[in-house]
Design goal:
The protein folds into 4 domains: about 55 residues, OB fold (Dihydrolipoamide Acetyltransferase, E2P) (Beta Barrel), CATH 2.40.50; about 60 residues, Nucleic acid-binding proteins (OB fold (Dihydrolipoamide Acetyltransferase, E2P), Beta Barrel); about 55 residues, Nucleic acid-binding proteins (OB fold (Dihydrolipoamide Acetyltransferase, E2P), Beta Barrel), CATH 2.40.50; about 60 residues, Arc Repressor Mutant, subunit A. By secondary structure, the chain is mainly beta. It is built from 4 helices and 18 strands.
Length: about 280
């Protein structure tokens, strides 16, 4: 099936006066207009193209790369505002339409907005929405504490920067944790710092806890998980024993478990260390 709003790898079926007709394995076809036809090609070649609707609402392919694809977010500029909605520059010949009902605030020509691109099931058209919160949820979380995540800056607030996590959840980077101002729509890596009882997520741009203090601590945590949360190692263990089990010196081991204990990731008892 040829998917609108996404890149499709399609076979070149035939060369016609308006352009190349491309097809998928299910027999669906789409036109790649002459202006996008590669200089060298052969019938039967496969080509990657982006598919959407042209000005006459016909499915069409292009070799241009849009600024946003289906079910994704991007910062786009409003190039015109009409009585029916706004039109955003997304890098293609036909602009992306944002209806008034999908505008978090009335859009102004020339300004930039964070947009979510989705397929309108009633019209089968690709449209945009600046009501980005409608497309994310924290009800069922798919992340956990300390996890590295992908972030998109979605809103500047007095507390800090609201971010979209893995294109699914909302999070917050507190102002005190920022060394520089982030740009709306900026994409960056981050780490889940805390998940609250109400499923609100605190995010940091720096590795949390042991990842920041001592990389060797990850080795200890991984080994704990492999051994049902317990290692018969402690401050009084022999250096040779620590070296054999963890491949690290006793000095490194003591520093790492100190960091883990401070972060409340482990418990230290007389018989060894336990995963908390």
């Amino acid at each position: 099936m040829i998917q609108l709003g996404e890149f499709n790898t399609l076979e070149i079926l035939r060369d016609t006066s308006p352009g190349l007709f491309l097809g998928d394995k299910d027999g669906n076809e789409i036109l790649l207009p002459n202006k996008y036809v590669p200089e060298n090609f052969e019938i039967g070649d496969f080509i990657e193209v982006f598919c959407y609707l042209d000005h006459e609402e016909r499915p069409v392919a292009t070799n241009l790369t849009p600024h946003v694809i289906l079910n994704d977010f991007a910062l786009l500029k409003a190039v015109s505002v009409t009585r029916i909605g706004a039109f955003m520059d997304w890098g293609l010949e036909k602009h992306l339409f944002v209806p008034f009902k999908e505008q978090a605030a009335k859009m102004v020509e020339g300004k930039w907005y964070l947009i979510y691109c989705y397929l309108d099931e009633e019209t089968d058209r690709l449209v945009g929405s600046s009501k980005t919160n409608n497309f994310i949820s924290n009800e069922e979380l798919t992340v956990e504490r300390l996890q590295e995540v992908d972030l998109i800056v979605s809103r500047h607030t007095e507390l800090g920067e609201e971010v979209i996590i893995n294109k699914k959840h909302k999070g917050l980077i507190y102002k005190n944790d920022l060394n520089e101002k982030l740009r709306l729509g900026e994409r960056l890596k981050g780490y889940v710092q805390k998940i609250r009882d109400d499923h609100k997520i605190d995010v940091s741009l720096q590795p949390i806890g042991y990842k920041k203090i001592d990389p060797s601590a990850k080795v200890i945590l991984d080994k704990l998980k492999e051994n049902n949360g317990f290692l018969e190692l402690h401050d009084k263990s022999q250096p040779e024993e620590i070296k054999y089990i963890l491949q690290m010196s006793k000095k490194t081991f003591k520093k790492a478990i100190g960091a883990l204990y401070k972060e409340k990731s482990i418990l230290i008892k007389e018989d060894g260390i336990y995963l908390n």
